[in-house]
Amino acid sequence: MTKLVLLLGFLGSGKTTLMHKILDRYSRNKIGILVNDFGKLNVDSILLTRNGIPMQELSNGSIFCACIKANFYDSLVEMSKDGLEYLFIEASGLVDPTSMPDILESISDRVHTPYNFIGSVCVIDAKNFLKQENIFPAVNNQVDYANTIIVNKSDLVDEAGLNNAKEKAREINPRADIICTSYCDVDIYTIIEGLKFSRDIDRQSTNTYESRPKSLMIEGNEIYNEKDIAALVKNLSPHAYRIKGFVKTETGAIEVHAVGTSVDIKPWLGKIETSQLVVISAVGLGIINIVSNELKGFVPPLKMIM
To answer: Containing domain of residue 258, as a range?
Structure first.
């Protein structure tokens, strides 16, 4: 039987950082990972690729939404052939995971090795959580669904801000363990081995075609100036929940991340063929005009892909 663990958390909360720690801690176990990214470019799967670890990646939607749910079913069936001890699923920051038990039940006659869903770990961003949970039902549902809640980026808030985030998480989910940390620096083995999913949630996921936020991609094939890219991301970030991707610059490849107005750019040592940035809109379709205006006259040119 394969133990299945869900990693939850809104866009930019730190799930990929936590997944790296899981891969390090469980390096001697036979594990697989399934990475779900809302944008067309699955940035997290690129960051998590490691030799010898089976991986499936599902992009351009939530695995709990009809838009790619069938692909999720097929991926679970395919990975059940690998005889894994653990399957770790890093879900998109926009998922509502409440239908997980129903999904596993629906594929039970197709899998080769049965799955044992042992529980969920949810990462929340101490700085932005209160604003996010007030806007997105999925954020509340992720917290409510978790067995353990990691209040990450606690170094970015004062004591009062941290306590407010913890109290709100406890209000949503009084059953879960709550751990405060920075950079997801936790004893992940103890957390995972202590998971025990025991709740029956008899509601459908709120992820639907209609509830999908608008996303698009910015792409280019030239060598770009890093300062120009930083300025572009800074200008777009107030209008986006999340911006991430990789860009070729005159100083080498860079990895770009933005959560709200917080922008992080650092060197990327991997190879990239094309510069690509995924933008998940905070202003609906209005993001199209905003990006279009920012790209006018950009040199070398970048193009917007819908």
So the answer is: 215-305
Q: State the CATH number of the domain containing residue 54.
A: 3.40.50.300
CB atoms closer than 10 angstroms to residue 159? 8
Please choose, from the candidates 118, 171, 116, 112, the residue with its C-alpha nearest in 3D space to the C-alpha of residue 144.
171
Q: DSSP label at 163?
A: H
For 30-136, strand residue ranges (E) read: 31-37, 55-59, 86-90, 115-125
Question: Domain for residue 21, yes or no?
Answer: yes
> How many residues are listed for the chain in this entry?
306
Angle, CA 87 vertex, CA 37 and CA 242 arms, to 5°:
20
Residue for token digits 């663990």? Answer: 5
Backbone angles phi, psi at 225, to 5 degrees: -80, 125
47 assigned to some structural domain: yes
Q: pTM for this one?
A: 0.73
DSSP state of 238: G
Q: Where are the beta strands (DSSP E) in the chain?
A: 2-8, 31-37, 55-59, 86-90, 115-125, 148-152, 177-180, 215-220, 240-249, 252-259, 262-267, 275-281, 303-305
Residue type, 246: F
User: Under a CB-based contact definition with an 8 Å cutoff, are residues 288 and 267 in contact?
Assistant: no
| pLDDT tens by residue, the chain, 306 residues | 999 999 999 888 999 899 999 999 999 999 999 988 765 555 655 666 666 788 888 877 778 876 677 889 999 999 999 999 999 999 888 888 888 888 999 999 999 999 999 999 999 999 989 988 877 778 898 999 999 999 999 999 999 999 999 999 999 999 999 999 999 999 999 999 999 887 655 455 554 444 557 889 999 999 999 999 999 999 999 999 889 899 999 999 999 999 878 899 999 988 888 999 989 888 889 999 999 999 999 999 999 998
